Structure formats: C-alpha cells, structure tokens
C-alpha cells in the first residue's frame, strides 16, 4: 500500500540536498511525499516530485535578541535551534492537522519534528547529513568541547526543559531529547567514513550520498584544451573572505590547472580584479556537473561536498570553517583520501603543495578509489528508500 510520507528539514542546502534523491525514489515507488520547506527550496523539492508545504523559519530572522553575540558560536546555534523549534512546531501541527502522515523523515536538527512525531504518534526516521553519535563517538567530547556548565548552556537547558513540559510529552525530557531514540536512522555517507562506524547497530543505515540530477543548478562544460580541472568551493554558507580567493588566484594563475571557483553571494567578484585566462569565477556552481571532470577539489569539508568528491573519485584538500567541518577534515586525513589544511596554515605555497600532493600521490589516489567503491556500494537513495519502506511495513 502506498503511503503519505512527510519530510521535515531545516532551511540549509547541506541538509536539503541529500534528501532530494530519496524523495524522488519514494515518489517513483508510488508514495505521496510532502516536504515542509521555505520558499528558497521549492523549485528543487518540486523537481524531486514532492509537494512543498511552506512555513516560516526563525533562521531567516537572525539571532534571537536574548543571545549574546560574544558567546560561543555553537551555543548561539543551540539557542537558535531552540527558537526554531518553538516557531515551527505549531506550524507543523497546523499543516498536518487534516492530513496526518503515515511516516515522518526528519533531519536530526529539525527538533520540532521530533516533538511533533511523538505528540501525534507518528513513526519517524531521523536523517543524518553528518556524523552520527553513540557512546563511542561524540562530536561534543571530541570536537566541539563546550563546557557543560557554561552559563549559556545552563540557560539553554532550562528553556528546553520548560518548553518540553509545556508540550506534555512524557517521553521527552531534557535527558532523553538528544538520544538517538528514533526507530531508524539514515546517514548520507558510508559506514567506512563514520568515526567508530562498526559500533553502530542495525538501527543505523549508512546509505551513502544520495545523488540525483540537479538541473536547477545549471550546467557546465570542461575546458576544450583538456587541462586538469581544480574546483574551489567552500559551501553555500562560506565565510571565506576576499583575501582567500585572491590567494587561490595567485596560487594557480597561469598554471597547468583550469580553476573553477565558487565565491558565494557575499563576495563581490569585481574585487578580484582581472582574472587569468585559466580561472573562472561564479557565485555558485553546479558541483555535480563539474566533479566528474575534476582532478582535485579544494573544499570546506561539508559532508555533502566530501561525499560527492568521493563518489567521483576526486582527491580533496579540506579547509574547514567550523568544528563539524574540522571533524570531517580530520577524518579525510585519517583515511588518507585528501589533505587537511587548517586556516592558520594557509598560504600560496601550502595551497600549491597540498593540491599537488592530493592530485599526484599514487597511494592517496588508491585510497580515494577504495573509498569511491565503498560510497557507491552503500546504495544511495535505493538503500534509503528500502529502509523507509521497511519501517512503513513494520509500523
């Protein structure tokens, strides 16, 4: 029997993009999929075959007035997600008031969906576009390292407790809220890339990257002269300044490389001056159209970009901008499928050396090819859809 599946996410490309191929696969299998989203993602969601349901997000409003801009970025993020939950939960209840889903897929950061599913008795699957955690691996203990008695953390915990009490959901307490209690978890990377991957039980499905055509991102053609291609893209939320992009141009100008550089919408390309003939610059690029032609990729270390690179067998040079990206960069280094280049080690010389090593080291390329095989064998959207349908049968 075909079912109604709801997808609840946060308004971020790194979280929405991995779900699009899964949505398409579910729709192709005959299921009806509704997707709670903001206006920005409607074209991509409609292209995948789902019905978009619009909501208002607190993220569009910027930091909550009660947050201190001097506090730790991770703590500010926690408080913003708490505010998002308060804003979104009543909207979910209204959107689905007369159309209760048979199953809910929700991002691990879509906290409102977690509460909504339990309140309404809807079986749910948690989606993970980045590392999952258990007793053997913790992002907080190993990378974020926020002190548990930081005043802002205590404030956050009190506000969370009061909110959960107001919802009158006895299954959810401050102690259980962050537990991996969902019936099933789907991670968009292979088990081999997960820290302590062998310690996760059968509830965790490591489907690998779920890629699909993204015609809405445009097209790209490789250079006619068969130069090796170097992609430089630090993500849609990149905070890299103009000096970084100038450094990249100087490092690879008039070199054998054909450089494709995405600088985001916050950087004025005119500030880069006259570009060398072997460098093209765009606000955004169709990454999946470029990577099959790439010989190396300078990335921020977002999980999507990392997995897309591995899917196409492209060695990485990772320059992380957040703690989460640092965790991914260190895993790339640990597995030997690329280079980790911290921002405080950036220079024209280190950029050139890191790219040279990533692109030409035979042992590194062998490891990249091995990871490419693991990524493709994970099964992607088909594996994810099979896990979702198994939950539907069991619920």
Describe the protein.
The protein has 395 residues and is an alpha/beta fold. The protein is 40% helix and 15% strand. It has 13 helices and 13 strands. Strands 3-2-1-4-5-6-7 form a seven-stranded parallel sheet, with helices on both faces. A six-stranded parallel sheet has the order 10-9-8-11-12-13, with helices on both faces. α7 (242-252) links the parallel β8 and β9. α3 runs parallel beside α4 (111-120) and α3 (73-95) packs parallel to α6. The model is unreliable at 62-70 (pLDDT under 50).
Q: Largest beta sheet, briefly? A: 7 strands, parallel
Write down the Rg: 21 Å
Distance between the termini: 13 Å
- For the biggest β-sheet, the strand order reads 3-2-1-4-5-6-7
Q: What pattern of helices and strands is seen along the backbone?
A: EHEHEHEHEHHEEEHEEHEHEHEHHH
Number of helices: 13
Structural class comes to alpha/beta
Average pLDDT, rounded to a whole number, is 90
Strand content: 5-15%
Shape: globular
User: Spans with pLDDT under 50 lasting ≥5 residues?
Assistant: 62-70
Topology:
Blueprint: E1 4-8, H1 13-28, E2 32-37, H2 42-47, E3 51-54, H3 73-95, E4 103-107, H4 111-120, E5 124-128, H5 139-144, H6 151-167, E6 184-187, E7 204-206, E8 229-233, H7 242-252, E9 258-262, E10 279-282, H8 287-290, E11 294-299, H9 303-311, E12 316-318, H10 323-335, E13 338-340, H11 348-360, H12 362-377, H13 380-394
